[in-house]
Amino acid sequence: MKLLVAEDDPKLLKSLIHILENNKFSVDGVNNGDDALNYALTGEYDGLILDIMMPGMDGLKVLQSLRASDIATPALFLTARTEISDRVAGLDAGADDYLPKPFSTVELLARIRAMLRRKDAYLPDLLSVGAVTLNRSTYQLSFRDEIQSLSAKEFQILEMLMQQPGTIIPSERFITHLWGWDTSVDTSVIWVLISNLRKKISAVATPMEIRFIRNAGYVLEVKNDQ
Q1: Where are the extended beta strands (E) located within 80-150?
Q2: CA atoms in the 13 A half-sphere facing the CB of 205
Q3: Pairing of the two strands 208-213 and 217-222
Q4: What would you measure as the largest C-alpha separation in the chain, in angstroms?
Q5: Phi, psi at residue 24, to the nearest 5°?
Q6: What is the mean pLDDT of residues 73-91?
Q7: Whole-angstrom Cα distance, residue 117 to residue 129?
Q8: Which tens digit of pLDDT belongs to each residue from 10-60?
């Protein structure tokens, strides 16, 4: 699925693109309303994520122009404006949802899945690696007849690893994914979460192992006999 992200903060735009690409979306990013409108008018996108306050056209005018042009692409507003009147204005402009800043990654992804579900194009609830399954709705890890419940943070880390088995993921990417780009959380928290994950993975006897690669990060290894 292909998303368009329009955000004028370059650091946040980069972070959003990174998060979405890690979750298997194809993403185009722009930093102003005029480009957002021109890109969206192509009709090539499954969903739009729009900031309201942008150079050129603001997000409200972008979406109003798209709706006037019969472009019905689902849209989610991300904005620091949290007054009820602002939310109503966004929804009246044709938005499907409204997420105020700051926001968590897990809520952002849930809102995007809900938005895309309304057009029958959304992330599957089950993520599988071989016979191991991660349920995105219940945050449960299952293998054969065994089920293990995960916390929200444990789920997000394992989801990233299962989406890219065999790929080393630096601790900093986990931190950005879980807490956003502007956080003071350090890597020791990731170490604790992964330690807990290893115990839960072992408890259901999955053929998976999270390995630490010195000076690089963590990688999910899957045994061939799964």
Answers
A1: 97-100, 126-129, 132-135, 140-143, 146-149
A2: 4
A3: antiparallel
A4: 57
A5: 70, 25
A6: 73
A7: 23
A8: 999 999 999 999 888 999 999 999 999 999 998 889 899 999 889 989 988
Within 8 A by CB and 6+ apart from 38, the residues are: none
**Sheet strand arrangement including 132-135:** 126-129, 132-135, 140-143, 146-149
State mean pLDDT over 85-113: 79
Q: State the CB neighbour count (10 A cutoff) for residue 216.
A: 11
Mean pLDDT of the chain, nearest integer = 86
List pLDDT tens digits, range 165-189: 999 999 998 988 887 776 788 889 9
The dihedral through the CA atoms of 191, 195, 196, 202 has a sign that is positive
Whether the pLDDT of residue 81 is over 70: the answer is no
Q: What are the backbone dihedrals phi and psi of residue 222, each rounded to the nearest 5 degrees, phi first?
A: -120, 130
| CA dist., res. 32 & res. 53, Å (int) | 9
Of 99, 112, 80, the C-alpha closest to 9 is: 80
- Residue 86, pLDDT score: 63
Got the DSSP string for 1-13? -EEEEE-S-HHHH
The size of the chain, in residues, is 226
Whether 124 contacts 137, CB under 8 Å: no
Place of tokens 């966004």: 90
> How far, in Å, are 6, 9, 16, 108 from residue 55 at the CA level?
11, 11, 19, 23
Residue with tokens 């630490």: 212
Q: Answer whether 53's CB lies under 8 Å from 29's CB.
A: no
Give the residue-averaged pLDDT of 83-110.
77
